[in-house]
Amino acid sequence: MSLNKETLYSNNHATVNSKQIDLLKKHFPQCFDKSGNFIQEKMLEIVNENDIDLSKESYSLNWLGKSYARLLTSLPPETLLTEDKNHNQLDENKDSKNLLIKGDNLEVLKHLVNAYSEKVKMIYIDPPYNTGSDGFIYNDDRKFTKEQLSELAGIDIDEAERILEFTTSKSNSHSAWLTFMYPRLYVARELLKDDGVIFISIDDNEQAQLKIICDEIFGIQNLLCQFTWRTDGNFDNQAKIKVNHEYIVCYVKQANMLKFPETIDPNIEESSKLFKNKIINTIVKNGDKNPVSTITLPAGFKANFAKGFVKARNNIFPYFHNDAVIENYILVNDVTVESGWSSKRNLELFIGNNMKPTVDTKGQLTDYRLTENGAIESVKIRGIQSHVVSSLMNMGSTQSMGAQLNKEFNISFSFPKPVSLIRYLISITSDKSAYILDFFSGSGTTAHAVLEQNIYDNGTRKFISIQLAEKMTLSNEALKLGYKTIFDITNIRITKAAQKIKSKNLDYKGDLGFKIFETVEDFRRDNTALTLESLNFFDSSLLTYEQYQSLLITWSLYDSNLLTDNIINIQLNNYQGYYCNGCLYLLAPGFSNKALKALLLKLDNDVTFVPHKVVIYGDNFDSVKQRELNEALKNYSNKKSLDLNIVVRN
User: Fold this and answer.
1) Residue 271 has what pLDDT?
2) What is the dihedral of CA 165, 167, 169, 170, to 10 degrees?
3) I need a surface site. Which of 328, 330, 538, 567 has the fewest CB within 10 A?
4) Whole-angstrom Cα distance, residue 571 to residue 273?
5) What's the confidence (pLDDT) of residue 16?
6) What is the DSSP string of 102-127?
7) In sequence order, what DSSP letters do the residues of 532-559 get, joined into one string?
8) Which residues are 6's β-sheet partners?
9) Among candidate residues 517, 545, 457, 443, the one with its CA nearest the CA of residue 487
10) Residue 106: exposed, middle, or buried by beta-carbon count in 10 A (0-12, 13-18, 19+)?
């Protein structure tokens, strides 16, 4: 065991390619020397040994600010997280696994990366479309000199100066929009499970640019679909062409990991065979794509009739080279048949499997049989029912959703996406216990859709909604209704939606609550704000109780504990520590020898207390106290074989 000093979210080593280098170090450590330098020849050896084809063609989208956008993906968050305790301690919220987080979504996504990495099954976002009238402007609070940006981003001074000009000029250019979106999508990808899916609503203003940066971030091979959604709005306006669609761009983190969706397009008639568990089709199919070939049906092949013959013939497909004799629903002799086939390979696998059902590419058990007229039929037993098409129709409109919000919840919001649309997208993910993330939450439609879908199919999905506390303009109708920010609307929408669902489902025991967290300024960046008036909870500290709680929540999340995990108060004599999933946090000053003895006693006697990491706030533990704690726990570890890691943070 050793005493490790740690500075969270350090800027010191952030560069344009920091995240890519970290990934290479994680998966290909043999390609780096002791000094951390990349050994290109080692990587080429790996490529050559695995017969990977190297493409000689490539393309990408470049814009003013791309280097800065890539740098933003690697820079650490500049904030801390805190919670709304009054809200979170309400009975309906205290055990909830749902989250509503107030703050800049890039900051929040960076905070979530450690704890929620590869946990999110679905992301849906409705970002600004940059229409010129939707209010999008690029805002950036990070402060760089042109020299700093030039060094960090690896660009010349002139380009750094031009980038800083548009990041401070409230631009809504294509470059500004791409610079805004790129780091958010890049960090969001880290949160997706391997079979995780992201849906992005967009229109023609930025669709082309969005598609290309998503190809770069997610990989062109992982494009699932570019859905068109018929918006069914009001088209009384005069235009040369009346646009009645938007796009929903959809990528999978690893397309080969995604299973067939267990859903059917709601426009399909209920009488369709898609809703049947057993599907029977002939595989006799002739045409240019199905050249004629022969197959030998062995004795023992099944038939759908009890007894009879299929005579030899060469005038009707399939041709029979000899008579087929059937007894007790079984072919009693080998027979050669000739035709074009729609599933020849699978039929041959079936025959080679002693006529036992095989599994097709959709996971369906498939049997084959001979009919009285000589056709060969496939009989498929559906494990799942799946029929998703790229054109989305009859799934509500923003106009009808807006009217519903106004009528039911007294909420005024422009162009909210309909719940029915998001519920359908949720059904495509086919995971009833999924984490579903929306980091442009707006009116809260995604969270509302999650709650309703859980009611519909008894799911346990959890939502994570992120929304900036963007202020309403004086002309906005929502301001007149008492909503000062968009976050206020998100909050009240989810609350009222949950109340409505509960009133209609009185016996429902699922999770209809949510916990609220928000980003706050990191107080350690400006210690001049601390005064003696802030002395309250910790007698000798210049920090408030709320500031300690912010450190605790932020550090716990950094240590891969979920925001909804319980943090337990630990009393060590008169000293208060905190414990969460094996992490013990000692933040306050005044950690005495009595507190240390109480800690060792608790390690001995409390079977539920098994920490693997002890995190101390360095500002409140001088070097002597750090050594005392380290020595005591090291000796204890030697005695009890606990693998304790002590971390000093500032």
Assistant:
1) 77
2) 160
3) 328
4) 64
5) 66
6) ES-HHHHHHHHHHHHTTTEEEEEE--
7) GGG-SSSTT-SS-HHHHHHHHHHHHHHT
8) 649
9) 443
10) buried
Contacts of residue 556, defined as CB under 8 A and 6 or more positions apart, other chains included, come to 565, 567, 578, 580, 583, 585
Helix (H, G, I), strand (E, B) or coil at 249: strand
Q: How would DSSP label each residue in 251-274?
A: EESSGGGPPPPS-B-TTS-TTSGG
The tokens describing 476, both together, are 């906005």
Closest CA to 103 of 82, 124, 85, 121: 82
Q: Are 480 and 489 in contact (CB under 8 A)?
A: no
Tokens 């088209």 sit on residue: 235
Joined together, the tokens standing for residue 211 give 């598609």
Tokens representing residue 321 in the block: 């080279």
Cα 177 from Cα 188, distance rounded (Å): 17
Instruction: Give CA–CA dist 440/468, Å, rounded.
Output: 8
User: Among 100, 115, 34, 23, which residue's Cα sits nearest to residue 565?
Assistant: 115
Buried b vs exposed e over 537-546: b needs ≥16 C-beta within 10 Å? ebeebbbbee
Structural tokens at position 235: 């088209």
CA angle, 204 then 207 then 210, to 5°: 160
Give the Cα separation of 333 and 301 in Å (integer). 9
Under a CB-based contact definition with an 8 Å cutoff, are residues 357 and 380 in contact?
A: no
Number of neighbouring beta carbons within 10 Å of residue 586 = 23
Structural domains of the chain, ranges and CATH numbers in brackets: 3-49 (no CATH), 77-130+180-264+387-520 (3.40.50.150), 278-381 (no CATH), 530-649 (no CATH)
User: CA-CA distance, 541 to 533, in Å (whole number)?
Assistant: 11
CA distance 581 to 24: 29
Q: Where are the alpha helices (DSSP H) in 266-366?
A: 344-352
Short-list 162, 180, 172, CA closest to 72: 180
- Which residues of the chain, if any, have pLDDT below 70? 1-2, 7-16, 56, 233-238, 383, 526-541
Phi, psi of 419, rounded to the nearest 5 degrees: -60, -40
Residue with tokens 């080429």: 44
Distance between CA atoms of residues 47 and 29, nearest Å? 15
Question: In the chain, how long is the greatest CA-to-CA distance?
Answer: 103
DSSP state of 31: G
In the sheet that holds 278-282, the strands lie side by side as 278-282, 376-381, 365-370, 358-359
Distance of CA 165 to the CA centre of its chain: 33
E strands in 503-599: 515-521, 568-572, 575-580, 583-586
CB 11 within 8 A of CB 151: no
Mind listing the pLDDT tens digit for each residue in 333-353?
A: 999 999 999 989 999 999 999
CB contact set of 280 (below 8 Å; sequence gap of 6+): 377, 378, 379, 380
